[in-house]
Amino acid sequence: MDLSSPQRWSREIFKRTWGLRRGRLLDNHAYSLWTNSMSSVWDELDAAPSLDGLRLPPFVLVGAGAVGNSLAYVLMCLEHPDAYPVLVDDDVYDTSNLNRCCLASHRDLEQEKTAVLASRLAGAGIASFPFSGDLKQFVNDARIGLRADVAEEFGDGLYRMVISCVDRGDGRQDIQGLRPHWLVGGSTLDLQAKTNVYAGDVDAACLGCHNPREVKGEAMRVLERQLRAMSQQERFSFLTEHGLDATSIEEYIQGSHCGHLGRAALLDFVCTPPPQFSVGFVSLGSGVLLAASIFRQLLSGMALPQRSGMTTFNFLNGNLGESALARDPQCQICSNLTVSPDPSLQTDTGLTQVG
Ligand SMILES: [Zn+2]
Known about the structure:
Helix content is 35%, strand content 14%.
């Protein structure tokens, strides 16, 4: 992948003309996602084998947000019509998504993310199965319309390949709870795009590691105490300032029988992590790394044993590198495992019930 661009070169020329105030000049501008290496000379990099004839197994894509959009975009560009993504996400598009979701536009506002993504994929000749709901609902749903061979495997609790593009601890724990044979994830952190392979190695992190379930009960009780201590006018101001439905939440606080909507809104509020810096090209980078990780394994004919690991591209300094993520001894899923999970034994359909 050549990340050269006029903007990049103009930035470098600017730095060389005016001198560096901090940081360093960019040494490398060519990258191989086949070997995860970088160079200043494009021709020195290993060329990956051709993707012609490569077949993707059906897979579950959990999270149709920015990184999920980016992965779908890569599949569409590769003209991979035999792919069959099963799309799971319970969200709709709002204006805060549009700067990062590369396949969404203003006409998709308030539309289900999975339905929109399915329609974009269909435009490229790629069939998919969109499901608007969370993973627990998906597992328990009848999944009418799902391709028969895939439905049969899911019915047996067999998830061959699952891709995580979610950013909340609960969602990640639920995905790991499916015990998929092949689990990869894409994420962003500041200006870093990341992809992770979770192969079940004894010392390596699972997707549940470092992603504890949010403690909802206590946070909810604290927020309710704060709200009840306010006057009705103060409460109205606080709720509207935070973009919450003041009417339904007031009904809940007043003990109305119709207050379940208000309770759900409050619960969602306490579970939503604080806003974090995010920018579209980093999400796109994560989708590209994720696709490369999948294709690398497929091109090896699945003969190579999967190895857990993390690949990171840092847009801040142009570095591409691999690292390992150690297991979390407090992990609610893998902390009691002493051996790598045996894929042949992983046929249970249940999500993790921990937490
Ligand atoms: Zn774990």
